[in-house]
Amino acid sequence: DRDEWIDNQVAKHAVDHTLQELQIGAKTLRVASHSTTDGGIVTLRSDITEMKHAEYRLTDAIESMRDGFALYDKDDCLVIANGKYLEMFQSLGGEIEVGMNIRDVIRMAVETGILVPDTSDLDAWIDERVEQHRNPEGDVEVSFPDDRTYVVSANNTRDGGVVVLNSEATELKRVEMRLRDAIEAIQDGFVLFDGNDRLAAYNSSWARDFGDAVDQIHIGMAFDDMIRVFAYSGKVKDALGREEEWIEEQFRMHGEEVDFERRFDDGRVVRVSRRHTEEGGAVAVRTDITAIRQA
């Protein structure tokens, strides 16, 4: 009631320093009071109505995002987060709130099974995750125990904080898995290079052509490096004893859409068809035609 409110204001007035927000009609006021050296009180009143409106608009915008959003300050404490970000943890029994340190958020994620340390030294592992949080480099994919998949993107703010976006990629991951299964089921060799000429996908049939050198092949590998491994694998008949010359031949025709035959040391003959992709990469299919050539 009014008397209680007056009593509260008198009590606050007696404190050396107070800061409060008051709603008066449609206006929002910030009132700061300071004690003077002679025992008096100085009160400053600021109209922060527009600032509060801007704050509400920002909060609404963040809350309406489809992705999880969180902002951590330079001391690694959570400043603001939307419902999607909080829900990501709450769905597995975790609770986070504003003011919580990222170290505690990570520990809670471990306790709920969201994150699984690959070491028995939990504290050292958390230290590494905190350092990654402070100095983010690229996106990180996180798989939850309930089969959901999120892509976590973090970036530093100008004042030393970190803004985090969590995008659910569960359905995209399922499509990716089905695509991988389909590629693996192809009897012919299949390989895909992206627009940066790096290995993006391949199946076991294609990889077997490398023989014992297959362990050197990996996703993200540059075409130049891959073709050099292939040349020195000892499997390509045309490359034996003339590896560097053969590598140069592959470089010259790499950017072309071509069909050609390749012979292996075990007598196999394959036809390779290579075509461009829309993103500027290349896809190649290798078909065994040994029986046709021996007929």
How would you sum up this structure, described in words?
The chain has 295 residues and is of the alpha+beta class. The chain has ten helices and 13 strands. The protein has helices at residues 2-13, 49-63, 83-90, 102-111, 122-134, 170-185, 204-207, 223-231, 243-253, 290-294, and strands at 17-24, 27-35, 41-47, 68-72, 78-81, 140-143, 149-156, 162-168, 189-193, 199-202, 258-263, 269-276, 282-288. A five-stranded antiparallel sheet has the order 5-4-8-7-6. A five-stranded antiparallel sheet has the order 10-9-13-12-11. Helix 8 (223-231) runs antiparallel to helix 9 (243-253). The longest helix is centred in the middle third of the chain and has 16 residues, at 170-185. It is elongated, with a radius of gyration of 31 Å. The mean pLDDT is 85.
- For the secondary structure, the number of strands is 13
Largest sheet: 5 strands, antiparallel
Shape: elongated
Helix content percent band = 25-40%
The Cα radius of gyration reads: 31 Å
Helices and strands, in order, run as HEEEHEEHHHEEEHEEHHHEEEH
User: How much β-strand is present in the residues?
Assistant: 25-35%
Average of the residue pLDDT scores: 85
Please report the distance between the alpha carbons of the first and last residues: 102 Å
In DSSP terms (H or I, runs of 4 or more residues), the helix count works out at: 10
Broad structural category? alpha+beta
